[in-house]
Amino acid sequence: MLENMDNKSGGNETTFKGIVLQQNRCSQLIVTVRNDSGLMSGHGRVIVDGQGDASRRSLSDC
Known about the structure:
Residues 43-62 are annotated as: Disordered. The chain is an all-beta fold. The protein has a domain at 27-52. 0% of the residues lie in helices and 40% in strands. The chain has a 3-stranded antiparallel sheet with strand order 2-1-6, with no helix packed on it. The two termini are 16 Å apart.
């Protein structure tokens, strides 16, 4: 999930519901960020595929 989209945190169109990482198993996540998209994949499947204007994304204040 891209945590902040449209100044809202959590639960947006990029939210992935399912198991991504498993205990005692090596994992490789591939993240590609471009001006108009963000893609995360792992274990041969797409986890997040966010499209749209970069101004919609922002960092958390954690």
